[in-house]
Amino acid sequence: MKFVAISGSLRKDSFNTKLLHAMRKLAPDGVEIEIASLADLPLFDQDTEASYPAPAQALKDAVNAADAVILATPEYNRSMSGVLKNAIDWLSRPYGSNSFAGKPVLVAGVSIGKIGTAVGQSHLKQVMVYLDAKLVGQPELYLGPGGELFAEDGSLKEDATKELVARALEALAARVG
User: Fold this and answer.
1) Under a CB-based contact definition with an 8 Å cutoff, are residues 72 and 109 in contact?
2) Is 153 exposed, middle or buried (0-12, 13-18, 19+ CB in 10 A)?
């Protein structure tokens, strides 16, 4: 089983990207998690969607080939990040080829505080429902404060957090079928 994971942060030391790397270590047996980069993704422009730019096509191909998707979002001004919204716009286009339709999706996130990602995730989940994704409702992954979650090697420090993340990954795997 293959999951594609996308971080909504381009920051070098992103908590959300760290979470995706930690998820790789906590994935259920038989699950591979590929982390896709958004660093080279151009801004969505409907004028160019007929001749998809290579980075957008590579991301679309990866998501289309995956059994499920993980979206990790920080909170930017009470919503998801612009870079993540841009990726979603590319993945839902052109009309009639929405990569999220019927696809199991886990929304997760880390913020510097205790609840910031929850607000960003609320908007992201609204978009995913519209795009007909099969969202994992429970457990919810509102993690923070980000500066306290990770060990020097990038792993999650607390066993309770590891167990919560592992349960969420198991719930996502159960949605594949």
Assistant:
1) yes
2) exposed
Whether the pTM exceeds 0.90: the reply is yes
What confidence tens digit (pLDDT) does each residue in 27-43 have? 999 999 999 999 999 99
- DSSP label of 50: G
Strand 2-7 to 32-36 pairing: parallel
As given in the structure block, the two tokens for residue 124 are: 């992201």
Structure-token pair, residue 129: 């429902």
Distance CA 98, CA 26 (A): 29
The tokens of 172 are what? 């996502």
Cα distances from 149 to residues 28, 30, 72, 92, 158, in angstroms, run 21, 26, 15, 32, 7
